[in-house]
Amino acid sequence: MKMTYSSVREPRWANREMTAIDCLVYFEHLKSEVPFTASEINGVRVI
User: Fold this and answer.
1) Who's near 33: CB < 8 A, 6+ residues apart?
2) Is 22 in contact with 11 (CB distance < 8 Å)?
3) What is the dihedral of CA 37, 33, 9, 13, to 10 degrees?
4) Which of 12, 17, 18, 21 is most buried when burial is the number of CB atoms within 10 A of its CB?
5) Cα angle value 10/42/25 (rounded, 5°)
6) pLDDT (0 to 100) of residue 2
7) What are the residues whose beta carbons fall under 8 Å from the beta carbon of 2, sequence distance 6 or more?
8) Confidence bin at 16 (pLDDT 50/70/90)
């Protein structure tokens, strides 16, 4: 499933290692803003 987002706000580190970021993301398919944790999976940035 392709997910399209239109905004990301309030980024902050999710862990002490600084390898993940918590933020609020507006996803078009949900038509709402939701909490989201962005991180790297197998060297690929996710967000």
Assistant:
1) 7, 24, 25, 26, 27
2) yes
3) -20
4) 21
5) 20
6) 77
7) none
8) very high
How far is Cα 32 from Cα 7, in angstroms, rounded to an integer? Answer: 10
Beta strands in the chain (DSSP E): 5-13, 20-27, 32-41, 44-45
The token pair at 7 is 């905004």
pTM to 2 decimals? 0.74
Burial of 16-39, coded b for 16+ CB within 10 Å and e otherwise, reads eeeeebebebbeeeeeebeebeee
